[in-house]
Amino acid sequence: QVQLVESGGGLVQAGGSLRLSCTASGRTFSREAMGWFRQAPGKEREFVTAISWSGDRTVYADSVKGRITISRDNAKNTVYLQMNSLKPEDTAVYYCAAAESFFTTAQAMGRPARYISWGQGTQVTVSS
């Protein structure tokens, strides 16, 4: 399995930006579709976005469209989550995950069971 480590979380004011990184090791990273999820206290894990293994296809949850961008650099075994115009409701632990297949809908990529590996998460806190 691929091992995943997230970084880049922290405290930011509303309207600010953060870039999260997820670095992979283990099996071939470039063959995995990658996703980001988040979980706020007392809430279920929520799908944010996913990207195909080649990086040419992406899918986003409606709640983050236009504010969040996923990208990847297979040469660096890293997937990124650029978050702009952050809101207090974006506060959560953010997790990256690897999947064996990519589908072009949020409903399909939003199923946690589709993912075979998960990182430990990184905390993002947005203050008002």
Structure, briefly:
This protein is mostly beta strands.
Structural write-up:
It contains 1 helix and 11 strands; from the N terminus they run βββββββββαββ. It is mostly beta strands and 128 residues long. Strands 2, 4, 5, 6, 9, 10 and 11 form a 7-stranded mixed sheet that branches. The chain has a 4-stranded antiparallel sheet with strand order 1-3-8-7, with no helix packed on it. The longest helix is centred in the C-terminal third of the chain and has 4 residues, at 106-109. It starts with a strand and ends with a strand.
Amino- and carboxy-terminal Cα gap: 39 Å
> Class by helix and strand content?
mainly beta
- Approximate helicity band: under 10%
Form type: globular
Helices and strands in order:
Elements lengths: L2 E5 L2 E4 L4 E8 L7 E7 L6 E6 L6 E3 L7 E6 L4 E6 L8 E8 L6 H4 L5 E4 L3 E6 L1
Parallel strand pairs: 2-11
Antiparallel strand pairs: 1-3, 3-8, 4-5, 4-9, 5-6, 7-8, 9-10, 9-11
